[in-house]
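Methods: example folding runs. The two proteins below were folded one after another, and each record is reproduced exactly as written to the output file, sequence line first and structure-token line second.
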Amino acid sequence: MMRRGTLKSGGSEAPLGSGRLKAILGYSGYGIVRDSSSFAKGIWLAIVLILLTTRFTDASATPLTYDDGGAESFWSDYYPNGIAARFSPPAFRWKINVILIHGFMIDKGEKSFIVEIRDKDLNVIFRTSLPVSEYFKNATLHWAEIPLPNVTVRGNFYICVYPILDFNGTQLWIGIDNNTAPNNCFLIDCYRQEIKSFKGGHAMIMVEGENVINFIEIVPNSIFICEDALKISFKIIAPSDSIEARATLQAGSMIEDCKVVYEKGLYRARVEWSRLSGLKEPAKLSLSVKALNSTATLIIELDETLFSKHLELKEENERLRAVVNGSIVELRASRDRLEKEENATALLRTSLKECQGMVSEKVEENEKLAEELSIMRILASSLAILTVSLLTILLRWRTLVKPGGDKNA
């Protein structure tokens, strides 16, 4: 399968006719000129390629470049393959104002190319898709100037360009300087966080920027894992209160925006777990902030440890939910038993009141009987005393009567 190619240039800066053009555009990878006569009739007669080495620089900005201004060859490739140039800024915090790319286009209709800025770990901190025709000239080599919203980087960074080569459509070719050491130029895949060495020279990519005076800083505050989403809160230190914050989730070829809200002095980004389900590789959450003319980005990696923790919490939540459901059933049964016990207690209380009433009645009856018994005792004692007194009197009377009776007799 055809993958990438390089166009060789003799370095001339003069306008070229069709014959000279065919000599320059000798394609080393898989032959861009298959039939020189038909190509000359179809396309090359209408193209005049002028090699220019003029750079558009701002006197107040600091340019970073590796090339010597002359292109010895040209490079392009199929998407998602691209080329990356690594830069070391003169200050730790450095603001990129402009990206310049030395190249040309072969115009066959509207088409876009992609430009990225990645940090030293190849995390994407800025990405844009641009129409080729607005920045490059048809069959004319020049420095295309791409202004940026003043992206702030920290330490080393990469400028990545993806020409999205199409032999049936518009083509974008980037100048290569073969006189430059290739240790700062690499091949890159748009969807991968890795680079490969490039032995063909150095891509003619240049950046202009300046030291950051008023910078933006993103300060993570907390990460909260709930059942349905991952919530990340962060603070923003910026030179202006007019702040635009965005969150972008990237996993492989998937790139989606996430909702960001501002509450009580904190920005909160929410990532639904449904977006992360089924992923076979770690995802990245990119927090981008723009204030005034400065932009800053913070990359948060969502690795498998976080996913594992989410699954553990999900399983624990399901287990606790089952326990709660079982507890609810048991609680209802306990409530039913409690109601029955309360009903039985109410019946016992009623019975107890009835028994207390009966006992009170019996106590009153006993008190009356005790009074009657006391009276009966008094009467019985009086009767006994009276009986004894009568017997005593009777016995004395009889005793007195007997002697007298004998005497009379």
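Second run, written to the same file directly after the first:
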Amino acid sequence: MEIPTVFAEWSTTTTLTFGPRYSTGTEAMMGTLPGYDPDPSLYELQTLREAVVDCLDQLGAEDRFVIEALWFEGITVRALAERLGIHKSRTHRIAQRAVNRLGQVCQCHPTIVGHLRLGGAS
């Protein structure tokens, strides 16, 4: 069964553009249009990246291996299951557990908590 979809006028005429990345928060604020929140500066993004790396370092070896394989290598759960020699559904549960553990560790990191508390999550 087909359902006709009426697209909004803005959805067919709007193009997605990315602006420049600013080095500091002041530059980001000066380069932002009135009424919009500034994008995080490169310095802010770097401190968040370092905080996430700190959190990854706190994980166990298995959790870190799974997250690095899926997120940084970009392999699929199926490929990871073959690498580990276990069933795909079991691998998916292991991956979800690792992500949940990373989330729990990130909830305790002061840099990440401060960023989220200030409304820095965009």
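Comment on the second run: The chain is about 60% helix and 0% strand.
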